[in-house]
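Each letter names a residue; the fold follows as tokens. Both lines appear below:
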Amino acid sequence: MRRSFGILAVIALSATVSLAQNGGYLLINNDNVNGNSADIDTISSTGALAPRNAIGQNFKCFFVADAVSSDIAAFQIPGLKKVPTNFTNRQLDGFYGIGLAVSPNGKFLYSALSGSGNLAVMSIAPDCSLTLVGTPINQPDTSMSIAITKDGRALVVSHVDLGGAQAYTLNATTGAMTTLGPQLSFNAAVSECANVGCYPSAEDVDDTGQFWVWGNATLSGPSILTAKLTPRGFTNAAVAVYTGQTTLQNVQTPWFSPAARAGNGNLYLGAMGFGTGYPAGIIVATFDAGTITYASSTVNSAAFYTGTVQTIGKTGTGSPIAQIWDDAEANNTVQSYTVNGATLTPASSLKTTSSGSFAFSMTAVGR
């Protein structure tokens, strides 16, 4: 049984994120259905949180998607000046969720739109405004989660209902997407999927662009999906199940620590939960050149659901880290943790301005 919320309407930045060890910022998409908004909070090296209304650093733009209205708002940094007109296009319907990812060179914004079931690319102008490039590519499934490799050469989109994913090569000059290999089907490649259920949700990738990890939107037990991307497409598809090792459920949002991106370190797995009886929190696993091993888990007993995990530090474990969560009434809170080895210690919490909407998307920014 699938229980997927995905990253319903995400924030994307038009530059490569370089997180400072002495703290940074968290950009939060409040995902308000009656008029969307975003929060900006500061976070210190010790995990202390505070509201803030400006970002003083060298990023150019950030983008906030609104799934209900199927548009994308753009803001200029550091003054947070909003581009007057939100990007929208009648071909592009994101009602069930919108995924965003910016090319590392900052020239293009890629979008997965769940309502119309397609991928689209927009060019980013100097004033941060967006223009559709080419023709959107139709997907065989409701798709809302995408990620781009560090070198900007490949993009992967999840096909959650079909139990698979598709890779594309990216043209750094034109933004064009070209299919890379056949569609990955976990159900066809992994026999355990018949029992566990394989529904790839959000994904992340190491710095080599080879090792991909997905959350698995299932209540059949805490699990993740993995595969290796080659010049011919995906190979080595697998599922890892952590039943008996943790009580956390519905793992949907993986995030590599800086050390893991470089080849060996912590991999954080956001367990979304599913309300009463399905605990939410964070699993810490170790990643070693493609080998993933369960290490520990931290339950957030106050959470009804949780969203993405983000690292703030730029080396090692990425300590401190943060996760957004909400209670049953959709009151949203950011929780930070310091990290020692594979052990998480709660550091600070801060309620967001959003109430009445479940906010799942958060992006960390250095300062």
User: Anything to note?
Assistant: Helices lie at 186-189, 193-196, 258-261. Confidence is low (pLDDT under 50) at residues 1-8, 16-20.
